[in-house]
Design goal:
This protein has 387 residues and is α/β, with parallel strands linked by helices. The protein is 40% helix and 25% strand. The protein has eleven helices and 16 strands. The chain has helices spanning 13-22, 24-28, 40-49, 67-75, 93-101, 114-158, 211-229, 235-249, 325-328, 339-349, 355-370; strands spanning 4-9, 32-37, 55-59, 83-89, 106-110, 173-180, 188-196, 199-207, 256-264, 269-275, 281-284, 287-290, 295-296, 310-313, 319-323, 379-386. Strands 7, 8, 9, 10, 13 and 14 form a six-stranded mixed sheet that branches. The protein is elongated.
Length: 387
């Protein structure tokens, strides 16, 4: 236990002897250490030389600088752990009241009841400990906020951010993606990468949970899917292998839903595997339909699963809109969700737009629907349009 340093400020010399005598055991044990001053000016000098003093016992009526003026100077130090206990005659209630209004912790009256003073000092020490704990928690919180800010920057950095991502096929394929985390870091992610000259893989995923655990599992999931996908032209095979690795390394039963697609640049044929994810929308002409085939369990929950794939044909002008449930489950103040129907209508109205404009239109639609309601989930979209 750290020594509590106490400054006694009183122009009566007998007070110093009284303090030494009554608190002698605690002084001897190293629990208390006393400092003494005869007026406010001397007290400020002692405080300047001993900034770790945390309790001041101050008389009100003193020469040169009285206790009320000293109290105002102490408050200007903005040290919430420094507690001031005022000492004055019993009949001096007006000054005592002013001292309490000006921020004194407590007061005792003269002649001093030392037992009462001892209890008051212990109360002040409890308050000091509370302030120190609060300050430590605040420091830890600020450190965590800084770490989260850095983690958010790292998370955004690992997601593809350059559009168009494949300049050599930008005349054939329009690609855009966006991820907005509900917290500093999120569990959603998107990805796309070249498998070979003729095939591009597209991934959108949503990890269970929020915050740092989800962000860490998100990073592991993205790495697993990408490492498997780089050498595989079967969406089902990629998901089967990725699930095996994630299930073997899953902590606290975490899982991730994934929609994984392999696009053939030459033909527009899409081989896909839906691992427990929201079915994407295919915008074809005047129609917008959900791609409901190839439904499989999420990745990471169970080992030994064999995933199944499906296929769809994208004609020139068709758009595939992949998203996470933060889009359809965006909620307004009335606790209504945007829902698939409203989302589908937004896409229907935006069907002739480019990929980036479609993403913007969806974000605008969500903002108009939820108003000022707080974002409750990550909002992620990945849109590809065959030109």
């Amino acid at each position: 236990m750290d020594t509590i340093k106490i400054l006694s400020v009183d122009d009566e010399e007998a007070i110093e002897s009284l303090m030494r005598q009554y608190f002698r055991r605690k002084i001897r044990a190293g629990e208390y250490e006393f400092f003494y001053a005869r007026n406010g000016v001397e007290a400020l000098d002692v405080l300047n030389r001993n900034p770790d003093i945390e309790i001041i016992l101050s008389d009100i009526n003193m020469p040169v600088m009285d206790g009320l003026k000293l109290l105002s100077k102490v408050k200007e130090m903005h040290n919430p752990a420094l507690q001031v206990i005022m000492v004055s005659a019993y009949g001096d209630m007006q000054n005592i009241r002013q001292a309490m209004n000006n921020g004194a912790f407590d007061f005792v009256t003269k002649p001093i009841d030392m037992e009462d003073l001892g209890v008051t000092v212990e109360k002040a020490i409890s308050q000091i400990h509370y302030v120190h704990e609060s300050q430590e928690e605040h420091t830890q919180l600020e450190s965590l906020k800084k770490d989260l800010s850095v983690a958010s920057e790292i998370q955004q950095y690992i997601l593809p951010r350059e559009f168009p991502p494949f300049p050599d096929v930008s005349d054939q394929l329009d690609i855009y993606a966006s991820m907005e985390a509900a917290k500093d870091v999120g569990g959603d992610f998107y990805d796309f990468f070249r498998i070979d000259d003729d095939h591009i893989a597209f991934v959108i995923a949503d990890v269970c949970g929020k915050g740092i655990p989800a962000a860490l599992f998100m990073t592991m999931s993205r790495t697993m899917v990408r490492s498997k996908g780089m050498h595989c032209l079967s969406a089902a095979e990629c998901m089967t292998d990725a699930n095996r690795q994630l299930a073997a390394n899953s902590v606290d039963c975490m899982f991730v839903t994934v929609f994984y697609a392999i696009y053939d640049i030459r033909t527009g044929l899409v081989n896909y595997c839906n691992a427990g994810h929201n079915p994407p929308y295919l915008l074809h002409g005047a129609d917008s339909t959900m791609v409901r085939g190839s439904k499989n369990p999420m990745l990471g929950s169970f080992d030994g699963l064999q995933y199944k794939d499906g296929s769809l044909q994208m004609e020139p002008g068709d758009t595939l809109v992949m998203y996470t449930d933060g889009v359809t489950e965006a909620m307004n103040f009335s606790h209504e969700e945007l829902g698939p129907e409203r989302f589908g209508q937004i896409l229907q109205n935006a069907r002739d737009m480019g990929s980036q404009e479609i993403v913007k239109a969806v974000k605008t639609g969500i903002a108009d629907f939820v108003g000022d309601a707080r974002q409750s989930d990550d909002i992620t979209m990945l849109v590809i349009k065959r030109k």
